[in-house]
Amino acid sequence: NDVDAHKQFFADTLGGKPVAAHSVPDEVLGFPNALLFLHRQAPTGGTKGTTVNHFAFGVPDIRKMVAIVEAAGYPMITRAEVPASLEVQDGLCYMADQATFVAFTMAPDDTKVEFIEIRTQPDPIALHHIHFGGPQVREMKAWYVKVLDAKPGKRGNFEAADLPGVNLTYSPSPSPVVGTRGRVLDHIGFEIRGLLALSKKLECEG
């Protein structure tokens, strides 16, 4: 709805840097391992309820990041986004299966964003994972493994697969989900070497 509102969150608050993109009319913000394209168009809804429930940034000091986000006026929604069995204190939740802390906030247009503490991360912020939700977890994971050669595995208790620079995480959704097209996060993209060959491979596989 408001590109400037998203720039205030992703650039002014989180530190994304403007990137010149001559091939698209969108405004582009750069993070160490990801680009965020901002396109002015009223979304039909937020990220929750779609096949991409949220995406997460790794940060070396999550308490510092939470303080920055709260000072900028964005709500911490961690309690509502983790199982009731897990303790949440000061907006943080310790994930024993991953031996680290996480926190959730809601960015403009109901864009759900997670922070996960990666103490060894050299950058102050970087894309960590994209979290998919849906009724066909095994099938979703298998698609990315087959089509993009993602490396299958687990992230804590989550089903997951890894591509260079980003983890793909998959969870079953307790309620029906819709595709991302038209929502605040319209789609995700991957830089591909050999795009024509991949296109032909996709067509051959139906």
Structural class comes to alpha+beta
Fraction of helical residues: 10-25%
Q: What is the alpha-carbon Rg in Å?
A: 17 Å
The H/E string reads: HEEEEHHEEEEEHEEEH
Spans of at least 5 consecutive residues with low confidence:
none
* Tally of strands: 12
Residue share in β-strands: 25-35%
Give the termini separation: 35 Å
The largest β sheet comes out as: 9 strands, mixed
Q: What is the strand arrangement across the widest sheet?
A: 5-6-7-8-4-9-12-11-10
Mean pLDDT: 95
Oligomer: single chain
Shape: globular
What does this structure look like?
It is a single chain. The chain is of the alpha+beta class and 206 residues long. It is 23% helix and 33% strand. The protein is built from five helices and twelve strands. The chain has helices spanning 3-13, 62-71, 78-81, 137-148, 195-204; strands spanning 17-19, 27-31, 34-38, 52-59, 88-89, 92-95, 100-107, 111-117, 126-134, 151-155, 158-163, 166-172. Strands 5-6-7-8-4-9-12-11-10 form a nine-stranded mixed sheet. Strands 1-2-3 form a three-stranded antiparallel sheet, covered by helices on one side. Strand 5 and strand 6 (92-95) form a beta hairpin. The radius of gyration is 17 Å and the shape is globular. The N and C termini lie far apart (35 Å). The model has no long low-confidence stretch (mean pLDDT 95).
Ordered list of secondary-structure elements with their pairings:
Blueprint: H1 3-13, E1 17-19, E2 27-31, E3 34-38, E4 52-59, H2 62-71, H3 78-81, E5 88-89, E6 92-95, E7 100-107, E8 111-117, E9 126-134, H4 137-148, E10 151-155, E11 158-163, E12 166-172, H5 195-204
Parallel strand pairs: 4-8, 9-12
Antiparallel strand pairs: 1-2, 2-3, 4-9, 5-6, 6-7, 7-8, 10-11, 11-12
